[in-house]
Amino acid sequence: MLDVERIRKDFPILRTKMNGKPLIYLDSTATSQKPRQVINAISRFYRSYNANIHRGIYQIAEKATDEYIDSKTVLAKFIGAKGYREIVYVRNATEAINLAVLSWGDKNVVEGDRILISKMEHHSNIVPWQMLAKKKNAVLDYIELRDGKTIDMGDYAKKLEGRPKIVAFTHASNVLGTINDAQLMTKMAHEAGAMVLVDGAQSAPHMRVSMREIGCDFFALSGHKMLAPTGIGALYAKEELLEEMPPVYGGGDMIRSVGFQESTWNELPWKFESGTQNIEGGIGMKAAIRYLKKLGMDDIREHEKDLTGYALKRLCELDYVKVYGPGIKDIDHRLGVIAFGIDGVHSHDAAAIFDSEGIAIRSGHHCAMPLVREIINEAAVSRMSFYIYNTKQEIDIAVEAIGKARKMFARNASPV
Ligand SMILES: Cc1ncc(COP(=O)(O)O)c(C=O)c1O
After folding, report:
1. Of the candidates 347, 339, 284, the residue with the CA atom closest to the CA atom of residue 315
2. Which residue, 407, 408, 411, 416, is CA-closest to 344?
3. Which residues line ligand 1 (CB under 6 A)?
4. What would the pLDDT profile of 222-268 be if each residue is shown by its tens digit?
5. Phi then psi for 180, rounded to 5 degrees?
6. Mutate which of 151, 169, 230, 367 for ligand 1 pocket (most atoms within 8 A of beta carbon)
């Protein structure tokens, strides 16, 4: 298990107060906090070897270039990819999905093709496909959910009979916490002749992921959710696929040669990275992965499972709290993300009470409007989420805050 007290010392922000109370950060699904090891790596870059990459033939430029490339090698290893040629750096998971859509999708999807996604997707794995479907006159189809919690595998098998060209689904839901069986879903899609994109924005920070095992064609992730800075994310794609895909953005760095009328493209992965890249982001990503690896992804997962089980138990004791997503018996297939509603209390009011107690939680549609509005059937829900630095004591304080919110806002609330 993790030594959480020691981990907490690495996160300067956890010494901050919010509204005069020690900060309790329960919003790592939105973005994670950053350890000093990541902050220091970025600071070191600016203090001692800031230079543009790829072009300088002087020592600090070579060091910056080496560090940037090395960060991709480290990330490739971390997610079980073959090597850095399969890692395209982008701003975030959203841009990673858009890149796959704009490059592979634009080249391969034609009128009448089917695109299959699930009903538990984040907007970033819905809207780019809607845009592509509209542009190409393709059909956007959805995999149904079972009890509003998990992928309906029967419906998935049936929809695959429609022979979609690509299937895109989240590895783990940012609302329900559901962890999907990406390996099985990929295998089924491939057998049906479809390509597969997995949205790994919520899985990569919290559990061991392996491209070799999952076998997907594309995988998207965001650095800022896994201890790295904002503005760095990655699209993993199989090398042979990236070779065939056209670049989306033209300009410096992504070319091998440029003439007045024609240009040729750089080798992988640089063909997809035009202009000056987020060098500090790459360096921060390397430091973040090093930190996660040192803790061990299996131990991180166990810690979060422990917290999630505890929180689910505490919340289930409150008859005025409704928890969404899989229950405690399915904890092996559930992330440390708990969406909930307090009977008679709007989620924004609950968030305000949490804020006054120094607790950061999120409320709203969580960028999953179709799921929250049409499946969960609420305008907004509250969400608390856990990471390596959270404790059971923090969950206890959050549960107390729920009681306060209920007392303050719920009309006709029974005494709590
Ligand atoms: C499941 C999922 N996919 C994609 C994203 C988009 O991530 P980003 O905003 O970093 O692009 C998020 C963000 O919360 C997410 O939870």
Report:
1. 339
2. 411
3. 92-94, 122, 124-125, 170, 174, 199, 201-202, 222, 367
4. 999 999 999 999 999 999 999 999 999 999 999 999 999 999 999 99
5. -85, 150
6. 367
Q: Where are the domains of the chain?
A: 4-30+296-409, 38-293
CB 363 within 8 A of CB 381: yes
What percent of the chain has pLDDT above 70?
Answer: 99
Burial classification of residue 69, based on how many CB atoms lie within 10 Å of its CB (0-12 exposed, 13-18 middle, 19 or more buried): middle
Whole-number Å distance, alpha carbon 251 to ligand 1 midpoint, is 27
Phi, psi of 30 (to 5 degrees): -75, -50
Tokens of 396: 């206890």
Rounded Cα distance between 274 and 258, Å, is 13
Angle CA 289–290–293, to nearest 5: 80
β-bridge partners, 116: 141, 167
- Per-residue pLDDT at 414 exceeds 80: no
Fold of 4-30+296-409: Aspartate Aminotransferase, domain 1 (3.90.1150)
> Pocket of ligand 1, candidates 122, 127, 285: which has the most ligand atoms within 8 Å of its Cβ, to mutate?
122
Phi, psi of 206, deg, nearest 5:
-120, -10
**pLDDT one-digit tens code per residue, 161-177:** 999 999 999 999 999 99
Distances (CA, A) of 222 to 83, 107, 175, 272: 18, 25, 17, 17
Q: d(Cα 376, Cα 58) in Å, to the nearest integer?
A: 57
- The residue whose two tokens read 């008859």 is 319
Q: Would you say domain 38-293 falls under CATH 3.40.1190.20?
A: no
213-217 LR contacts (CB < 8 Å, sep 24+)? 213/80, 213/183, 214/182, 214/183, 214/186, 215/183, 215/186, 215/187, 215/190, 216/182, 216/186, 217/241
Q: How far apart are CA 184 and CA 116, in angstroms?
A: 16
State the virtual CA torsion across 374, 142, 382, 227 in degrees, nearest 10: -160
Query: How far is it, in rounded angstroms, from Cα 185 to Cα 192?
Result: 11
Kindly give the distance from the C-alpha atom of residue 233 to the centroid of ligand 1, in angstroms, as a whole number. Answer: 10
Cα 177 to middle of ligand 1, angstroms = 13
Helix, strand, coil proportions of the chain in percent (round to 5)? Answer: 45, 20, 35
Alpha helices by DSSP H, listed for 320-411, are: 347-356, 369, 392-409
Find the 96 Cα to ligand 1 centroid distance in Å: 10
Catalytic residues: 367
